[in-house]
Write a structure and sequence with these properties.
Layout lengths: L1 E3 L2 E3 L5 E3 L4 H10 L12 H6 L6 H24 L4 H31 L12 H9 L4 H31 L1 H7 L1 H11 L2 H6 L2 H5 L4 H10 L13 H4 L6 H21 L5 H13 L5
Antiparallel strand pairs: 1-2, 2-3
Helix pairs in contact: 1-3, 4-5, 4-6, 4-8, 6-7, 6-8, 7-8, 7-13, 13-14
Length: 286
């Protein structure tokens, strides 16, 4: 017996038509399981003999309709995933950071135009100090834009806290290792929880180091030792010579934690405790 989207064909060549609308047919195709050794490619004549279509054009039209329906169902299922909203929250957080940074730069230039005698020899790197300096004598439209930037910063802080809390539910074990915000960023760079769980530790280690990795591959510069996991204090607080080793061990534990989060979805204190000991032994510090 060979099963196709339009029906079932037995060894004698007799076809039993599969009825139903595109949604039912899409569910049928998703449920068909056939060994690669037993696959017999269908043709439109079989679908015609089964009574599913009248000609080749009708076969292609029905098949196209079915493929579109399956694609829509797959997209809908992807957006129903518990990691989908978390990814959008991280992307929005990055957008807020970018917008606030650009507006702060524009505001500093605006402030220098209004107060040329107060030109800064060195602009502080901390944007909070820049905004505080501007706020000392900001008035009118300048003050309104400043208030808007400060409002964006408050929204950003609230969103970051919410991301940390959501990550604790979606990525309980990854969050326990590197914190909710870093875990959510790593998952976003991977494209979701399932793609993250499929990545090897070596790829997780350099997620976020796209520029350095491209430079290594094209110009032969030293390969990156870590990517976004450098944001975690156990990596960037480690002795310089041990950072690569700590990042490697941490990435290895994160690879396992992501699989636990995907397939179990519950915290594993025993695993997290063992991972913490391994990371500390590699040279990390709390």
């Amino acid at each position: 017996m060979h099963s196709y989207w339009f029906g079932d064909v037995d060894e004698a060549g007799t076809c039993t038509r599969a009825g139903g609308d595109p949604a039912a047919l899409a569910a049928r195709v998703s449920s068909i399981r056939t060994s690669p050794d037993d696959i017999v490619p269908p043709d439109w004549e079989k679908a015609r003999d089964c009574g599913a279509v009248g000609d080749r054009a009708g076969y292609l039209s029905r098949l196209r309709e079915l493929c579109l329906r399956m694609a829509e169902d797959a997209v809908a299922a992807r957006y129903r995933g518990r990691d989908a909203e978390l990814i959008q929250m991280v992307v929005a957080l990055d957008g807020l950071d970018q917008a606030a940074g650009q507006l702060t730069d524009r505001l500093a230039d605006w402030h220098r135009v209004l107060h040329p005698g107060d030109a800064w020899k060195y602009r502080p790197r901390d944007s909070r100090k820049v905004l505080g300096r501007i706020g000392e004598d900001a008035q009118g439209p300048l003050k309104e834009v400043l208030d808007g930037i400060l409002g964006l910063r408050e929204v950003r802080s609230a969103l970051a806290r919410e991301i940390g809390e959501r990550a604790g539910a979606v990525l309980p074990n990854c969050s326990a290792l590197v914190g909710g915000l870093v875990a959510a960023r790593i998952m976003t760079l991977a494209g979701g929880l399932a793609p993250l769980a499929r990545l090897p530790a070596s790829s997780i280690q350099v997620l976020g180091a796209k520029g350095a990795l491209f430079s290594h591959l094209t110009r032969g510069t030293p390969p990156p030792r870590h990517g976004i996991i450098f944001q975690h204090h156990r990596v960037h607080n480690a002795p310089r010579g041990a950072r690569g080793r700590v990042a490697r061990v941490l990435a290895g534990r994160l690879a396992i934690a992501a699989r636990i989060d995907l397939y179990r979805g519950t915290p594993d204190p025993e695993f997290v405790g063992d991972a913490d000991r391994r990371i500390e032994a590699a040279g990390g510090r709390r």
